[in-house]
Amino acid sequence: MRPLRRLGFLTIGLFDPADPGPGHASVLEIVELGERLGFDSAWLRSRHLQAGISSPLAVIAAASQRTSRIHLGTAVMPLGLENPFRLAEDLATVDLLAGGRLEPGFSTGTPLHFEHLREALYPGTHELEDLGPGRLERLLSALRGEPVTDFEGTVGIEQYLRSAQPHVPGLAARVWQGVGSVASAETAGRLGLNLLTSSVVRAEDDVVDLDAIQRRHIDAFRAQHPDGEAARASLGPVVIPTDSATPDQVARYAAYVESRAGRVGVPQGPGRLLFAPDLLGTSEQLAERLSALAAFQAVDELVVALPFTLEHADYVQILTDLAERLGPLLGWTPAG
Length: 336
Description:
Helix content: 25-40%
Structural class: alpha/beta
Mean pLDDT: 96
Order of helices and strands: EHEHEEHEEHHEEEHEEHEEHEEHEH
Largest sheet: 10 strands, parallel
Distance between the termini: 25 Å
């Protein structure tokens, strides 16, 4: 097993739709806490038409001005809802503000509930949109500084360039792809990206062991990647340490895990989706469970997904135990 080199966390940024300000403020405070605790990265989910962060890049821009070291990522932005050219401009701008700390992560394919919002996004043209890997390749091309227009020159006193601006060399190398199948893992490898191993995958070839499928994705990714075994891949399970939790917190955490347990181990819906179990226990128990996972044994980066519906104080407790107890048990050393 590889020693854990990088430890991060992922949050949905839940808020009250009637009063969204406090939820967004909580996220910024959590990111600041993560930096103080020595986490290597903080990641924001992307949620549309829900009470969760809908504009992770805007929140990351704000977080970048309140931190100096921690890397800031998106896990993941559905690329089918974005314009690659405009997104490349936003990504580069935020990365400049963050001092080169942006870790943008995307998913490709048809976005969730696309049939209900496609007219709002692409009225009359949604059937023409390329929602697959080609869309990601367009984004990568723009981030690498390749031309997005055939015009270049001066009009009056204004100068026009052929590539998206600003251009940040090296940003394209920090792009991650979230994958849920062997095919998407192989595509991420061929494109030379970094891999975000999904906690929701499709059952494949009658295999319903999620851990085995995640390991298959990691191996398929590295088999196609120019860097081979050195290619970056991370695992993102829900992990809830209880070392310093109060009895009330432990009871609420257990209820949360139990409410989601029924979907684990059984393919769900026509897509035969498999969901990763939530891990709850002391740091010693969690270290043992994680170390036994075939997928965890293949990575040296862990991005712990925080439970969706907890309170700010709960996240403080969980992150503190992750940084001070579980991380070191896995071989990780806090940054700074």
